[in-house]
Structure formats: structure tokens, C-alpha cells
Specification:
Blueprint: E1 8-15, E2 18-25, E3 32-36, H1 47-52, E4 58-62, H2 79-93, E5 99-103, H3 106-117, E6 124-127, H4 130-140
Parallel strand pairs: 3-4, 3-5, 5-6
Antiparallel strand pairs: 1-2, 2-4
Length: 142
């Protein structure tokens, strides 16, 4: 286990007229991995997983609308909005590159919905708990 935290970046990006906070790790030219948090969580909570990665990834972990440093939405929160937000986030951070997605909790629900509505959005999809996620990531890099 690493002794120090891998450095991350923090930025605000306009996504569908909402200010979205997005945390990133790794070099922009590394393979893309979008990590999507669940209910009552934030993108920064993936730090311990990123620190455990044996390979380099460009990890993109947004705070969903209404969570963390992202803006709140006056119109309510619907899975369709999260799916549309995810599609816009993918367009901003990886419009043409191959990408992998991982979702936990409520994001594990919206990720498969995104996969069904936009099958070309990702080359790999992971829906799991943290420990299962690490096992799958190790298998995926082989």
C-alpha cells in the first residue's frame, strides 16, 4: 500500500448549465477511468482506490449534482438527469478516447442505464463494491 497520496486536481466544469466539481488523478494521456460515487458521497472518496492502482490511469471522479462541491439543482434529482450529466462529462473529458466506467451504490444503477442508452460510451463497465472493483481492475489490466 502506498505511503503517500497520489496527487489530484480539482476543477469546476459547466455541465448542462450546472457547475460540476470534478476531481482527477493521473496524466491526461493515460487510459481514462471514470469513477462514479453513490448516494451521500463525493468523487474524492476514491482516493484510497487510486492510491492502490498498480497501473497509471487518468481517473475522472465528478461530484454528482447536489453532492460535494457541485451545484444544487432546483428542479429535483432524477436518474435521467444523472445519465445526461454523465454523457456530457464523458464528452468533456474523453470525447474520442477509449474509457472505462465504474459505479458504486446509486451510480451503479445509473451506469448500466447509461450503458443501455449509449452503448458506445465505454469499453469497460464496472459495477461493484470497492473490494470487487479492485479485483476486476487487476483482471482488466491483463
Amino acid at each position: 500500500m502506498p505511503q503517500t497520496l497520489k496527487p489530484s486536481g480539482s476543477q469546476i466544469v459547466l455541465i448542462r448549465d450546472l457547475a460540476y466539481h470534478v476531481r482527477t488523478w493521473g496524466e491526461a494521456d493515460a487510459p481514462k477511468l471514470f469513477m462514479l460515487h453513490g448516494w451521500m458521497d463525493v468523487g474524492a472518496s476514491f482516493q484510497f482506490l487510486v492510491d492502490a492502482f498498480e497501473r497509471d490511469w487518468h481517473v475522472v471522479a465528478p461530484d454528482w449534482r447536489g453532492f460535494g462541491r457541485s451545484a444544487w439543482c432546483a428542479d429535483g434529482y432524477w436518474f435521467a438527469d444523472y445519465i445526461a450529466d454523465l454523457e456530457a462529462i464523458l464528452d468533456v473529458f474523453a470525447p474520442t478516447s477509449r474509457r472505462a466506467l465504474s459505479g458504486t451504490a446509486s451510480a451503479a444503477t445509473s451506469s448500466p442505464c447509461m450503458r443501455a442508452s449509449v452503448p458506445s460510451a465505454a469499453r469497460r463497465w464496472f459495477r461493484s463494491t470497492a473490494s470487487a472493483f479492485l479485483r476486476r481492475m487487476r483482471r482488466a489490466r491483463r
